[in-house]
Amino acid sequence: MSSEIKDDLLEETAYVSPVRKADWLMRVGVFIVALVVVLAIFGPYIGPYDPTRTTIRIAFPPPGLTEIPGLLLDWISGKLDYPPHWMGTDANGYDIYSRVIAAPRTDLKIALLANILSLIVGVFFGLLAGYWRNWGTEFLIRVSDVLQSFPVFIMAMVLVALAGRSSTNIIIALALVYTPIYIRLTRAEVLSQTSRGFVEAARAMGNSELSIALRHVLPNSLTPALIQSSVTIGFAILLTAGLSFVGAGVRPPTPEWGLMISTGANQIVLGEWWPSVFPGLAISLTVFGFAVLGNALERRYEKG
Amino acid sequence: MLIRYITRRTLIGFIQLFCLVIAVFFLIRLLPADPVSRLVGLNSSADAYEQAARQLGLDRPLLQQLGIYVGLFPDIEAGLFQGSLGVSWVTGSPVGSEIAVFLPVTLQLITIAFILAFFVSIPVGMLGALNPGKAADKGVFVYSLFAGSQPEFWWGLLFVYVFYFQLGWAPAPLGQLSPMTLPPESVTGFMLIDTLIAGEVGKFFEASHHLMMPVITLAFILSGPIIKMVRQNMLRALQSDFILYANLIGLPRKRVARYALRAAMGPSMTLIGILYGFMLSGAVLVESVFSLGGIGQYAIRSVLAFDYPAIQGVVLVITAISLIVYLLLDLIHAAIDPRIAY
Amino acid sequence: MKRDNPILRVRDLKVGYEVPGDLIVPVDGVSFDLNPREVVGLVGDAGSGKSTTALALMGMARPPGKILGGKVEFDGRDLLTLPDAEIRAIRGRDIGIIVQNPRAALNPMLRVGRQIGHAYRAHNDVTAAAARMQAVEMLRFVGINDPERRVEAYAHELSGGMAQRALIAMALSSAPRLLIADEPTSGLDVTIQAQFLDEMWQTVQKTGSAMLLVSQELGVIANFCDRVLVLHKGRIVEDAPVRKFFAEPQHPYSKEVLRFYQERASGFPLQVSGKPGFLQTKQLTKHFPLRGSDKVVQAVDKVTISVAKGEAVGLVGESGSGKTTVGRCLMRLEHPTAGAVTLDGQDITELGATEMRRMRSRMQIVFQDPFDSVNPRWTVANILDEPLRVHEGGNKAARKQRAVDALKQVDLDPSMMMAKPRDLGASTLQRVNIARALICNPDFVVLDEPTSVLAPRARNSLIALLARLQKELGISYLFISHDLTTVRYLCQRVAVMYLGQIVEEGSVEQVFTAPQHPYSKALLSAHLMPDPTRRRVDNPALAALEGEIPSPIDVPKGCYLASRCPHVVDNCRANLQVLTDLGDDRAVRCERVVNKEITNENAAAHD
Fold first, then answer.
1. Which of A284, B217, C489, C580 is the 20 to 30 A CA-CA neighbour of A28?
2. How far apart are CA B138 and CA B127, in angstroms?
């Protein structure tokens, strides 16, 4: 290689981007998400009680912090008649702990499926609208815009309440909410990518438009949508919980955090905080975990 | 130029609104729900059922129903063109007047919450941006992620438990005023304004007291995304070439900070619009917890009762407000940033 | 020319930044003096730390960089130890700076006049109205005509040259004693660059200030500087008066830099005798509709070019000339509004999609930005394989071998097959692009400014490669460039374009030794030769153009150059100029030249 090329390779000593922030934050996010996934798979089985069956112990408070080690010991050594209610029971007698760890299955399943559905549909139409710009795709964007200006929560409520309160309908409702977002995100990225030189170079080379769209543009346009997914899943969980809270979500006795909070809401004024606080804590941490993970992914892949 | 832009946007807005209403109209009628049974009861006789269906207008062909709703048959029933949103199937009152009662409650709540969120978020966001990478910035950032991912209804409940039940600082979550208090005469529909207009200062403070927790809850949730956005936009602005150059020509610090703030505000406008629109329907959760009686609760009631005209009315009104807010914010954005051409 | 009282004394300046586990110090102990009324040039390669040094003189470092040590003495005070308020007072008032990308340096949200006003008021206690008047005066001072109107413009409404002038107006508004100019003309057109540097130099002489001119281009340094500093590996390795530097460089690095710069005084490429009209355009016209109005942007106006088989034809012009659009029309990346393009007799403007695709294997293009024209996620192997896959198919092993051969053909090592574009330097990647263009054995290649973004050192070797490949493979080139001098080593014939029209064409020898059209003359004389014995500032500006290129939306009625031409008369403005054949395969678009009213007394002979 000529010396000039060698120098070339050493050329760019531009400033390196600033040192990354708090990677411990990313680890926290990954941990939380992993935990939720594990619970989604095993949750319903590992609790001491069946999450869908009531017990006779109504509105039992959870044990105090100091009592826990003792209780644990007693339980393991078999001295107790019934397993402790680590998080207490609610007004119907459900063991809260078992339901809290069983709920991820419901929430995550809904959120994941809703996200995958809207991702596939959204990326497909986003690619279409961004690459082939004709009146047909412009119309598509207008429709997507109208969909996006729907009042999100109300529309989800309407769909679920009127179509029937099943997980499937919730998934469809959420997908309808998130698809326009993915369309917009993908389309923006596709528009940006198609203006780059390598697309023209591919055209000049004799590639067909379809080939360019699939081989060049699509792989380079997926990143924003994929990064957004983590955040979307988190918000889908929030939405599901919210819907269940107002009575337009999953049906009892399915263990679901929002539903649990709703049932517990009536008891809060009586001072019985545990039926609402524990599930709420769970949502709070879970969605936070997804948001953190999404942000970490964004930071890592932003330049890509 | 400006007038043309506004007219164009308004026109497009109307079309969007119209399409939306039609879409919702068909959507809810195509769903398998049965509003007649809801109203008449599941065990009603066939006659009663048919009579109810006729009363609700559900026996007519779909397109005719749409035409009536839009206002093409004013002798049968007043429709959109006549300025009527129909009549609630549950209460029998005009949907428009019902919304006029509920909507201001929500608007009041969100607007105050937004203002509070702003006052808190902008300085905090700037604090993070001006000290990038340091402890303050990390704290600000983590807080913004946290606050933005919280279930507001749960936090509302938490606040009720702590501040009402334990500390007694806040009133019981039973509505805009204590159930014993007679509300002032409704002039604008906004409780705070109406109490002042009626001269009942005591009630003004009571209403404010009752609004305290819902507003704080909402403002908390809003602060997450707003801080994140302010911080990000400020950081980007501060790292831009023209800020570097402004420092190089010796502009005083205050002037440079103002340059950066102005650059950061522009892109923020879009997000604010989206947040406001989202809050219009999202506030329902907080409204429920505190029994405020806002449009969200009206929407829930209508949805669960299959009250089609009410549902349509709510969707229309909320979307219309969102579109107006979007337009306003786009105008502000264009005023701030001259690169945005009309 | 050492004076007793230098305006600025830099001692052992160090700037660095932290990466995980290490400290990188691009500026590692820089020391020099600057004297009043002196123009000092600072050269060094890209990334050598020139800009970092320039900023550090003002006590600034772009994050994450930090000033690690040293002294910058100005007026007896060390700038690096001053508190923030005091150094802000000095910046702008005593030391002014202009930077590389003028439009990015201006606040996009404020009108230009207001910004200049802010800069002025930062150092002078005046009212806003007075500051605005000063802004208008400064704009006039830096050569912007109609300053009353321009003062209300926003940054994005200004051209590159205008924006740079606005920046100078801001930098000079408080009459600083030292002006730092960091690559002020990179990205500007050749004629604008010459114009601009002329004016900046005169301004500096008028105000009696000192100037530090940072540049990679030795031509700029040779023509405008009194003294030269060479920055290498973070240190000043040479500090000499300009003539001495060019004549007898001392440091081995300086010698190396100058070696690549000696423009070869070789002869012109020999003519070829291939089949004429192999690639032909006839009255090629391209108009772009303007959104929201009836007007059109006239990019290309009835251009007729002919390239013989095996011949290289240069198409030269500055921004707005339409040369890139011509290239794109040839490749049918744009559809011509009128006119035809034929390759080997076949009209390609009317071909259907499938036939056009097949035709594309015979004509290829190499773009200006090597990084932008490749998919950043693909490896070199993928990049080279794509044309083979599209046009020839065949088995993978055979294609792989072809790719290896293609790399060798452009002097690259096949070991870089698995590399990604971001691992390669610009000129290496550009060679990959050339390999990609040649891999299907095309008959014709459009080269759209292939060397413009490369470092000056890399340009010559790339041109040499292209020349060699042409001889070996017998392909025809259309070589598009804004720089006449890159064309002369590669092309047999050249056409000069201005505002969408060809204003002169002929053999390279003819156009270079005796340019006819005033624009060609200006282009040639604007090229800055790295020869300090014939400094542009020491001789009156030859054939310089004034003003800026007219808008392609409202093209002038008469001669397009009328607003800028030094030889303009009334007839020029009234009469539409026609491309006239002068015989001997030459043509020129200028009545006065055809009528022999302008002679060649100002011809800048450049061999």
1. B217
2. 11
Selection from B304, B285, B303, B317 nearest residue B102 by Cα: B317
Q: Write down the pLDDT at residue A6.
A: 39
**Considering its fold, how many domains does chain C have in total?**
1
Measured in angstroms, the CA of C343 and the nearest CA of chain B are apart by 43
The answer to the question of residue A72 being in a domain is no
User: Containing domain of residue A194, as a range?
Assistant: 2-45+100-303
Residue A238's closest chain B neighbor by CA?
B151
Whether chain A has a CB inside 8 Å of the CB on B318: the answer is yes
Query: Angle, nearest 10°, between helix axes A23-46 and A274-301?
Result: 140
Examine residue A260 and state whether it is found in any structural domain, yes or no: yes
For residue B244, the chain C residues in CB contact (below 8 A) are: 60, 62, 105
Query: Which residues does chain B have within 8 Å of residue A164's beta carbon, measured at their own beta carbons?
Result: 32-33
- Among the listed residues C190, C170, C153, C167, the one whose alpha carbon sits nearest the alpha carbon of residue C549: C190
Closest C-alpha to A194, from A121, A123, A130: A130
- Encoding tokens for residue A148? 């996006």
ipTM for the complex shown: 0.84
For residue C229, being part of any structural domain is answered with no
Exposure on the CB side of residue C249, measured as CA atoms within 13 A: 17
- CA-nearest residue of chain A to B18? A146
Q: For residue range C275-321, list pLDDT tens digits in order.
A: 888 888 999 999 998 877 788 888 999 999 999 988 999 999 988 88
CA-based nearest residue to C312, from C129, C528, C480, C559? C480
Nearest residue to C98 via CA among C192, C170, C176: C170
C-alpha atoms less than 13 angstroms from C-alpha of C401 in its C-beta half-sphere = 4
Residues of C in contact with B262 (CB under 8 A): 109
Name the residue among C62, C104, C171 with its Cβ closest to that of B249.
C171
Q: For chain A, what is the domain count?
A: 1
Longest dimension (CA), chain A: 85
The minimum CA-CA distance between B152 and chain A, rounded to whole Å, is 9
Give chain C positions within 8 Å (CB) of B236.
none
Q: What is the pLDDT of residues B287-313, one digit of tens each?
A: 888 888 888 888 888 888 888 888 888
Contacts of C90 in chain B (CB under 8 A): 250
Q: How many CB atoms lie within 10 A of CB A42?
A: 14
Instruction: Determine, for residues C390 and A8 on separate chains, whether the beta-carbon distance falls below 8 Å.
Output: no
B157 → closest Cβ in A152, A265, A271: A265
Q: What residue type is assigned to position B154 of the chain?
A: W
pLDDT score for B325: 86
Look at residue C377 and tell me if it is in a domain. Answer: yes
Q: Is the dihedral of CA C428, C430, C431, C432 positive or negative?
A: positive
User: From CA B36, how far away is CA C347, in angstroms rounded?
Assistant: 71
Where residue C339 sits, what CATH number does that domain have?
A: 3.40.50.300
Structural Rg of chain C based on CA atoms: 26
- Residue C176 and residue C120: Cα distance in Å, rounded? 11
- DSSP code of residue A20: P
CB-CB under 8 Å, A149 with B277: yes
Global pTM value: 0.83
B132 CB near a chain A CB, below 8 Å?
yes
